[in-house]
Amino acid sequence: MRWVFWILGLFALAVAAALALRFNTGYVLLVSPPYRIELSLNLFLLGALALIGVGYVVLRLVLGALELPARVREFRARRQRDNARSALLDALRAFFEGRYGRAEKAAAAVIESDEMPALGAVLAARAAHELRRYDRRDEYLTRAGERAPGDVVMRVIAEAELLLEQRRFQEALLALKALPEKHTAGLRLELRAQQQAKNWEPTLPLIDQLARRGVFDAAQAAQLRRYAQIEILKRRALDRYSLEEYWQKIPAEQKRDPKVAAAAAQCFAALGGGEQACQIIEAALDHEWDSALVGCYADCGGASAVRRIERAEKWLQANPRDSALLLTLGRLCAEQELWGKAQSYLDASVAVEPTYSAHLALAGLHEGLGHADAARRHYRESLDLAVAQLKQLTGGRRRTPL
Q1: Burial annotation 368-398 (CB, 10 A radius, 16+ → b, else e)
Q2: Exposure string for 335-357, b = 16+ CB within 10 A, e = fewer
Q3: I need a labelling partner for 23 at 20 to 30 A (CA). Which of 7, 245, 265, 384 fits?
């Protein structure tokens, strides 16, 4: 609609100019001795306007000619950018379609352009990695650093992920040190590398940082810490001084975790620290009852069996139908040669929940007492339950003949 007003305005201007020229009787006198030129004012104005128009056109042509090389360069650069973007889109499409050879070829064409060369190099490296062409992958990553030294994060994250897939944990950890700052993706990769390299102690602060950033919820973080603590305790189980030193560093809340307490108790008991193992189990059970943990209470060799029986009988008042506690009491009583009480507790454990451990303990008890038939029966029951549990763990899978 605006162009209509422009046309109307131009017509109005032309009419006004025609009227003004019609009634204009002025003239222009140009004197340059011995010459004298006299022109009407209207002709002079038209000539001036024509001269200005011709000058403007000539000036535009000259400026256009001067700007032509720059415009050609800009056109070529724009075409290169468009080609690079098209190649990058083709590479991404081919990569996610699983056509890694085509993706590598298309991404390699992007590297020499100025349009996201680091992204092209990283994409080409990932495609080469999928094709197991590791030399070319490393070359692409090197070129990514050369072509775009500012895009450190993208290159380092890609390099660390690819090295971890090759199980080159130490090299991945070394690569992650090049990150300018610790961010979430880098911390997750570092945690994964430390776990796969079985460097358990450095994983604990990493788990805490990731939990604070919301990567893990409380249950996931606790499970990861638990596993790391158990592995560290097992490694320290060769030296009691080292084990005690590390145990003192563990936060009190984590010491009361049943699985951590069980691992620590087993490690101390293996090094002859039965009394300390008992204290660890008792402290954890007083905080939170756990049937699996109480099963370790009978294995604390070196500690007073009588005191353990008294403590376990107090627990029995609060947990009268805990089969693991009854089994533990039966084993402790058998250790003290309290045969009647041992059999009573073991029979009660089997009555609550028949397990292969309880049947095996009863078999050993009857065998020691000379009850051969009863011993054979419990051995058989123990074996049947063990086989059934094994089948349950393996899912009852059978090998299919080829």
Answers
A1: eeebeebbeebbebbeebeeeeeeeeeeeee
A2: eeebeebbbebbebbbebeebbb
A3: 7
Q: Which helix (H) or strand (E) holds 35?
A: strand 35-40
Sign, CA dihedral 131-134-140-145, equals positive
Please give the Cα distance from 264 to 247 (Å, whole number): 8
CA distances from 276 to 258, 266, 301, 302 (A): 15, 10, 10, 10
Q: What is the DSSP-derived secondary structure letter of residue 33? A: T
Question: What average pLDDT is seen over the chain?
Answer: 84
If one counts every other C-beta atom within 10 angstroms of the C-beta of residue 174, the result is 14
CA separation for the pair 211, 188 (Å, rounded): 11
Digit-coded pLDDT (tens) for 144-161: 888 777 778 888 899 999
CA dihedral over 317, 320, 324, 330, signed as positive or negative: positive
Q: What is the pLDDT of residues 15-38, one digit of tens each?
A: 666 666 565 666 666 677 777 776
Strand partners, 32: 35
- Report pLDDT digits (tens) over 266-311: 999 888 888 899 999 999 998 889 988 998 888 887 668 888 898 9
